[in-house]
Amino acid sequence: MSENNEKKGFFSEMIFNNPVFGLYLGICSTLAITTSLNNAIGMGVAVIVVLVLSNIAVSLIAPLTPDEIHIPVYIVIIATLVTLVGMLMQAYTPELFSALGAFIDLIVVNCIILGRAEAYACKNGVAASARDGLMMGLSYTFSLLAMSLIRQLLGTGILSFSNPMSGNEIFSIRLIPQGFEIPVFKTQTGAFLTFAVLAAAVAAIKLNSEAKEKAKALEAAKAKKKEAAKA
Amino acid sequence: MKLIYKPSPNYRSPQSTSGIMKDLTYCLIAVTIFSSLYYTMAFGSNLGLRVVLMMITSVASALATEAIWCKVTKQEVIKGVLTSYGWVTAMILTLMSSIKVSYYALAVSTVIALVFGKLVFGGFGQNIFNPAAFGEAILMNTFAGSNRTDILTSATPAAAMKSYGWMTTGDTFSTMMTSKGFGSLGQMFVGWYPSAIGSTSALLILLCLAYLVYRKDIDWQASVFYIGTVFVLSLVIGLLHGQGIWYPIFQVLAGGVLFGGVFMLTDPVTSPVTILGRIVFAVGAACFTLIFRLRSNMPDGVLYSILLMNMLTPAIDKMLEGSQIKDIAKLKKRAIIAIACMALVTIGVGAIAKTQSAASTGNPASVNEFAAAIPESTISWEGTDYE
């Protein structure tokens, strides 16, 4: 029973509280870098690391921070972490670093990270904040993967993934024959189209489940009324 | 006295939407038949058949898209497809494309045009952009690589003129017309030259305009003001550079001015509500067309000028808001100021354009020599008019 609840919570956090498609946070980098699976996973991992560490640091430091300067303090923490991650990526995964370009540095101003620090980490304990960071990072990565899967497949016809450390190809499959790819999905137009469709799908799922819940609540209320009438 | 018991709006015109679309379809079929005949006579029956097959591909994918959309959104399929008029979009899209576009690219562009250009906005009557122009922009920008290279046709007049920046001397112009095989301006008026599939025959398109206006399907103002503004402004620009009467005539005949002006600019959904607004809209589109031709790196500016003016439609409506009877003098003044500003900017852009002739720039001359040295049929397509 409890496991079931946990699973449902995981799913709902991935879909309903999805930062990109549900809350429309961090869209800029999502639109820009989702041209390939490699980029998406690299960016996702970088964001997860920064998000978890910044949430932990913020939850530790929040009780000591005066209210007037809390945003600069958080920004300094986040910027330090992003610089660290960027330097590590430049050292160990140079190809990925050059592919992502400025968007590694722009994690600093990614709304998800400051948003979670402001909305969650500064009010909660270390363990809860770390878990929140991990969940948010995972659902951000999940959105990046969904976008880049669609865009890479339709835009180039090939699904491929290579080891970011060595640059060796791990797998590469051509699913759409040559000449039948739709190059618009490689461009920013395609990014916006994909984003719009996925965001609409998430909104539709949300609406649907809300309607179901309402119907359930109505039925429950009716049943109660009947019981009351009987009594 | 005859009383009308319907709620407003009470149509003044006896013509219904389905009637308009029927007449429009007839006109587009006529244009298709003409261009199929042209390609059959000029390049062989393969290309003539290709025109028809492209049309069928596009229309079939449009109907399939709308049927699936109706099914998914739980509407009545047959009624939904018949009142959405997707085939008109598909036909205009095909006629705007070049003969080299692959069937696959055309089908995908049709689907994208209908879904993202029309259906997501709420279907027919709700779209912001002309769906056919939207699809053509997608087709031109992203499927250029998948064009069939084995189909050999010569350069279009618009693309050839673009190599001189749409501003050249009369001598260079007449050399260009003969060396590329476009013939005379009269031949261009009839439409016997290669260009986008459906935009060649000025004669046929003007007949379509006359028919549509006679049947009260469209207002004459938008088309006439568009074509007229292109003519007048390029006449002024031509005079500033000492060009003859051939310059404005060529500006009107080449590329998609006539086709866009008659079939796309008159779309009631994406143009302003009032007649005055439509005039401002048409003049603005004409100015953008000339500016794009003279200053951008696209061969022709018709497509993007229409898309841009679609975007400005709400602004034009806002500008001309008010009582159409009481405030008409004030509104007319506003419209005239807007038109004058746009015309002045366009003339200014035209005035600073440099005249390029074969002698003054090295590159086009060598292109011409190159063109003269090899047989006409092997010169490959240099771009599409609408790009």
Radius of gyration of chain B: 21 Å
Mean pLDDT over all positions of chain A: 85
Distance between the termini of chain B: 55 Å
Low-confidence stretches of chain B: 359-387
> pLDDT under 50 segments of chain A (min length 5)?
1-7
How much of the residues of chain B is beta strand, in percent? under 5%
Question: In terms of topology, how is this protein built?
Answer:
The complex is a heterodimer of chains A (231) and B (387).
Chain A: H1 2-15, H2 27-33, H3 37-61, H4 70-92, H5 94-100, H6 102-105, H7 111-121, H8 126-156, E1 158-162, E2 169-174, H9 188-230
Antiparallel strand pairs in A: 1-2
Helix pairs in contact in A: 1-8, 3-4, 3-7, 3-8, 4-5, 4-7, 7-8
Chain B: H1 17-43, H2 45-72, H3 77-82, H4 86-96, H5 103-117, H6 131-142, H7 157-162, H8 170-179, H9 185-190, H10 202-214, H11 220-240, H12 246-253, H13 257-264, H14 275-295, H15 302-319, H16 328-351, H17 362-373
Helix pairs in contact in B: 1-2, 1-4, 1-10, 2-4, 2-5, 4-5, 4-6, 5-6, 6-15, 10-13, 11-12, 11-13, 11-14, 11-16, 14-15, 14-16
